[in-house]
UniProtKB/TrEMBL annotation:
Stored PANTHER family: EFFLUX SYSTEM COMPONENT YKNX-RELATED
Gene Ontology CC annotations of this record: cell envelope
Keyword vocabulary terms for this entry: Coiled coil
UniProt region (Disordered), positions on chain: 212-231
Compositionally biased intervals (Low complexity): 213-231
InterPro entries for the chain: Beta-barrel_YknX, CzcB_C, UPF0194_transport
Lineage, uppermost ranks: unclassified sequences, metagenomes, ecological metagenomes
Family annotation (Gene3D superfamilies): 2.40.30.170, 2.40.420.20
Domain CzcB-like C-terminal circularly permuted SH3-like, first and last residues per copy: 155-208
Pfam families (UniProt xref): Beta-barrel_YknX, CzcB_C
Name of the protein: RND efflux pump membrane fusion protein barrel-sandwich domain-containing protein
Subcellular location as annotated: Cell envelope
Amino acid sequence: HLGMRLKQVRDDLEKTAVLAPAHGLLVFQSTGSRDQLHPYELGDKVSQGRPIAQVVNLLHMQVKLEFDQESIIGVKTGQQAIVQVDALPAKTFKGTVVEIGKQARRSQIEGASWRRASDTTFPVTIDLPETKEALMRPGMRANARIIIRRVQNVITVPAECIFERDDRSVVYVERNGRFRRTVVQVGATSGDYTEITSGLEKGQRVALNDLGATAEAETPARPAKPTEPAV
């Protein structure tokens, strides 16, 4: 009888050990009240069926981002993305869009009683390929550029060089030491640069600031040279 009881105690003791199903970093979930969340600690109460931790594979990570409703247009699963992590500014990572949220979210602004259209976001998940070295950690801040389409042999200018006049897009082009307002047709925008489909030629210099009525006179405005190609 004593031997059977001892065996039962040993069996129960073995059940208290939880083995990880795979290699990785053990990340504890948070518990406590809404204002006092903290990772699970020794002595905390747990509920049956509620996860208290997860094993994260640091060699194969995902990035979860929020895109506003203007930026989400054109984003599709399978598209390539370039990811940069704030903690690793010198490195970039190539990833693939694997999931796009179907329902919009409303960003919570503390202390605000109103919301703008730009506060509406959609979650996007980007899968990063497996790496040989664990560089990232769960919870790190990241940003990404998703490649919607590629164009080559085009003229681009900084987006800040383009202004709206009478419902038309214009830039101020330097000619013979003076800047003249020129109507242009714009195409795709990538980051800080916008494609110009007509109205400019390669090598022309444009002003970075709005010259307005002084466009015909000489001005010390900083010029910017169009670059190519755009992505």
